Amino acid sequence: MSAPRTLLIPLLLGFAASSANAADLTIKLGNTAPYSGPASAYGAIARAEGAYFQMLNDQGGINGRKIEFLTLDDTYSPAKTVEQTRKLVEQDEVLAMFSSVGTAPNISVQKYLNAKHVPQIFVSSGATRWNDPEHFPWTVGFNPTYELEGKLYAQYILKTKPDAKIAVIAPNEDAGKDYVRGFKEGLGEHINQLVSETTYLTADPTIDSQMVTMRESGADVFFAEATPKFAAQAIKKAASMGWKPLIILPSVSNSFSAVLEPAGLENSIGVVTGLYLKDPNDARWADDPALKDWFAWMKKYQPNASTGDLFNVQGYTVAQIMALVLKNCGDDLSRENIIKQTKQLDGVEMPLLLPGIKVTVDPKNVTPIRQIQMARFDGKSWVLFGDVLGEK
């Protein structure tokens, strides 16, 4: 499914090519996302962002201005990302690039956007390189860094299954390398317990051969650091082979509808992951006012989208944070002020973040989400356990 070229979102902000003044009635935000191709499940994030901005525009906008959200399909191809991003910056004259999806796609335009002094904010990826304000002052990430997340999973394994034999699969790109680097750091002197390490390419049709290799290694713990399509394949293939390791999924691939349902809910029972967002399927949030608001928003603005998809929760939440930044900008909607306000978020609580997890960005650390909580799938929803882990 291809994306609509432009989603016009009534919000309340405004700007021109590099700045906005009080007379401007709209603010253009640019975005690239894979609406097609092997990572198309992530397109849900951008659709949710567009729907949230539409709601804000319907309510009158921000500070008297509306948001024009221009989101283009890049098929998760860096070359296409470059083409689409240049169009958004040079032809459409967006004020900022917001929440573009993917590690390799965003890497392909990071130097370009920083050279142009165009904010590249709330990148939908946890690559460690987004947290480098010295070399890339116009870039701010969003997700917990993959290195931190990988490290926390390794520590969890050693604590709960100290004699584990571990297999890992990861994409052969920067995101996968970040996860594996952090995972190995977490294993520390127990690195010899990693008995199988393999990779895949995003363009591969399946990971069946890698799954056979990992099963034959004798591993009883499997870190499936994969994008949604391959994470679903991994769970399903493990079940069909009769291989029953403890499976750990990364936060980028723990969607109920995009991963667990395609894998088979019965096959997914017992899978573990790290969460920082409230799971709409979890009965504990049945009376949560914020989630009730989210369900009402989904019904009105995304009636055909899955309420079981955490990517819809993520899109909603990161759009809320973007709206807060724009509100804090007041009438100074220059690119300089947008990046300044983005880096002044100090312990902000958002309605759909898990309790205890807050948004913090400062000039020296531009990773907004720095914590996760472990959860186990029980066949119906992710069930939280343990304490919030990560940076305090």
Tally of separate helices? 12
Q: Strand order, biggest sheet? A: 8-7-9-10-11-12-13
The unreliable regions are 1-23
The largest sheet, given as strand count, sense and whether it forms a barrel, is: 7 strands, mixed
- From the N-terminal CA to the C-terminal CA, the straight-line distance is 41 Å
Count the beta strands: 13
Summarize the helix and strand pattern as letters. EEHEHEHEEHEHEHEHEHHEHHHEE
What does this structure look like?
This protein is α/β, with parallel strands linked by helices. The protein is built from twelve helices and 13 strands. The strands form two sheets. It has a seven-stranded mixed beta sheet, sandwiched between helices. The chain has a six-stranded mixed beta sheet with strand order 1-3-2-4-5-6, with helices on both faces. α2 packs parallel to α3 (103-116) and α4 packs parallel to α5 (174-187). The longest helix is centred in the C-terminal third of the chain and has 20 residues, at 310-329. The termini are far apart. The model is unreliable at 1-23 (pLDDT under 50).
Explain briefly what this protein structure is.
Helices cover 38% and strands 17% of the residues. It is built from 12 helices and 13 strands. It has helices at 43-58, 78-91, 103-116, 146-160, 174-187, 208-216, 228-241, 256-263, 265-268, 289-301, 310-329, 335-342; strands spanning 7-9, 26-33, 66-73, 96-98, 120-121, 139-140, 166-171, 194-200, 221-224, 246-249, 272-275, 371-377, 382-390.
